[in-house]
C-alpha cells in the first residue's frame, strides 16, 4: 500500500499503532479518539484493514495474550509501516498547507477587489436626471 | 460462561469461511465484546452495521483475500475473470448494436428514420424516458470495462450497476401490471446475464483484490477485437441476430482462443479461468435457449432458428470442454 492509495481507515489504524503495539479493541478505541469520533470502525472492517496491512508488510503481530480466557493479539508497525504512515502524513500536511495558503491569499485579495463599502461607482442616472 | 451477546456474535461469525474463523474468531470476539459489562452483554445483540461488516469480510475472505487457502484464491481469480469477460462482451455489444442500428436507420431514407425515432417519442413521458434509458444506460458496460482495467474500480462498479438496470424494466413493468411479460424465461435469463457479472464485479474486484488485467493484449485492442467480432456476426447473419447473438459469438471466438492458448502453453492462462468461462458460457446458453424456445416448430422462423441452434450447439460443446479443463485444473492443485 502506497501513501497514494491509503484509505482513511488504514491511516488511522497505522496512527493508532504509531506509539505502541495495540490489540483489536485498543485500536478501535484509539482510532475513534484520534479522529474525534469521525472514524468508528466495525470489527469486520477493522480485520479487513488489519489483513491488508499485514499482507502489505506495514504491521506485524507483536505478541499474544490471554485475558479472562479470551485471546488478545497485539499488532505493531514495521519499518515500512512507519515510512508509509510518515509519507501519508507528509502528503496530508502538504495538502493542508496549500489549502491554508490559498485561503489566506483569497482573504487578502477579496477586500481589495471589492473596494470600500458605500463607494460603488455610479451606474444609473440619479433622481435629478444626472449621475448621483 | 458465554454471554448472550457473545453467542449471537459467534453465530454471525459463521458467515466467515472456516479457515478465517480458525485464525480470527477468538480474537474478533474479544475485540467486539471489549470492556462491555456482563449485564449489557446479556441484553444486547450485534448491530446491523456490525453484521454487514462481517458479511462484507466474508465475501472478501472467500474471493482471494491475502493469505487465503488455494481454493479461495482460485474462486476469487475465477470470479474476477468471469466478471471481466462478461463485461467485455456486454461492453462491445452496447457500442456495436446502437451504432449499427443508427447507421441502418439514418441511411435508409425518411421512413426508416421516422420508424427509429418513433421508438423514443409519442408513447408518454415515462415510456419515452425508459426507451431512451434502455438505449443509453448499457454504455455503462463500456465505462465499467475501461474503468476496471485502468484502476477506476468505483467507476466500474457504478457503470455495471447502471448498465444492468434496463434489464429489470420488463420485470418491474410486469409487477406493476403495466405490461405483461411475453417471454418470462428470456427476460429472467437476460437479467441474470447482466446482474451476475455486475454483482461478481462488485464482490470480486474489491479494494483489496489484485488489479484487473487481461490475459493478453491492451484494453483498447481487446475491446476493438470484441467489437469487430460482434459487429461482423450481426452484419454477416442478420437473420439470426437477437440480443444474445453478438455476445455469444464473441464468447465462442474468445473461449476457443483461450483453449488453444492454454493447450499451447501447457498450463492455465489464469487460475480458475476455464471454469469461469464455462459458467459464462452456461449463462449465455441459458439465454440462447430461452430466446429460441418459443420459436421452435414455427416454419417462418427457420432463418432465425438455423444460426441460433448452431450457436447453441457450439456453446454447449465449449462449456463441456471448458468444464473438463477446469476440473483438471482443480484436481491438479
TrEMBL record, chain B:
Keyword Zinc carried by entry: no
Record field: transmembrane: 72-96, 132-151, 158-179, 185-204, 216-237, 243-263, 275-297, 309-327
Record keyword Membrane present: yes
Keywords recorded for this protein, A-Z: Membrane, Transmembrane, Transmembrane helix
Origin superkingdom: Bacteria
Name assigned to this protein: Uncharacterized protein
Lineage: Bacteria, Bacillati, Actinomycetota, Actinomycetes, Kitasatosporales
